[in-house]
Amino acid sequence: MERSENIRVLLVDDHEMVRIGLAAVLSTEDGIEVVGEAGNGMDGIRLAQEYKPDVVLMDLVMDGMDGIETTRKLLQLYPDCKVIVLTSYLDDEKMYPVIEAGAFSYLLKTSRANEVADAIRAAARGQSVLESQVASKMMNRFRQPKQAQAAHEQLTDREMEVMRLLSQGKSNQDIADELFIGVKTVKFHVTNILAKLEVEDRTQAAIYAYKNGLAE
After folding, report:
1. Fold for domain 151-211?
2. CB of 27 closer than 8 Å to CB of 34
3. Can you tell me the distance from the alpha carbon of 135 to that of 162, in angstroms, rounded to the nearest whole number?
C-alpha cells in the first residue's frame, strides 16, 4: 500500500459517535488523514497492522482489551507509532499506567478540535502534549516527597537473622550458637541493629520486629 504524505491517523474508541465526530473534524484539517476506525482494542491492533498509522487516537475504557493493554501491545508491534490518549478519565489508576505503557500524549475529550489536531501534528514531529490538568497532576506527583525508607530495610541479611532471634528472647550466646558465630560478633550486630532502628535496647528492638511482622 502506497503511503500518503499526510499524517495517517487511526481512531480507536468504542463509541461510534465519537469516532464519527473525530473523523469529520479531522477530515477538514490539512495534512491529517484518518485511515481507519476501530471500536475495540483487538480491532485497533488489526487495523494498525493493515494501515501502519503514524498516530493512534486511543480511548482508555473499552470492552475487552482496554486502552492501556492495547497501547502496550500496539507499541510492541510498532514502536515508532505515536499513541495519543483521548479519554474522559483523569484518575491515577488509568493515567499513569497508560503513560508507562508508552502513550505519547494524553488529552481529555473536552479538548477542542484544533487542540486534538495540534497534538497529532506535534506527535508527528516527536513532541508530546499533555492536557493542562494532566500536566498538573504529574507535576504534583513528582513534587511529593518520596516515602521514607523503613528502618529495618537498612539491616543486612545477617542483622535480620539476629533480630528475629533476639525478638524470641534469645541471649547473645543462644544467637551465637544458632548462627555459628562468636558472641562478640553477635554483640556487634545487636549494636548496629539498635542504631539503625533508632531504639535504645533489645526489648524495643523486639517490639519493633513484632509490629512490623519481622518476628517469627
Report:
1. Arc Repressor Mutant, subunit A (1.10.10)
2. yes
3. 47
* DSSP track, 50-114: HH--SEEEE-S--SSS-HHHHHHHHHHH-TTSEEEEEES---HHHHHHHHHTT-SEEEETTS-HH
Rounded-to-integer distance, Cα 92 and Cα 90, Å: 7
Q: How many CA atoms lie within 13 A of 186 on its CB side?
A: 21
pLDDT digits (tens, 9 = 90+) for 59-108: 999 988 999 999 999 999 999 999 999 999 988 888 889 998 999 999 99
Rounded CA gap, 52 and 11, in Å? 12
Report in angstroms the alpha-carbon separations of 111 from 88, 118, 132, 133: 10, 11, 10, 11
Strands 55-58 and 7-12: parallel
Express as a percent the part of the chain with pLDDT over 90. 66
- Find residue 86's DSSP bridge partners: 107
Q: Taking the domains of the chain in order of start, what are their residue ranges?
A: 7-143, 151-211
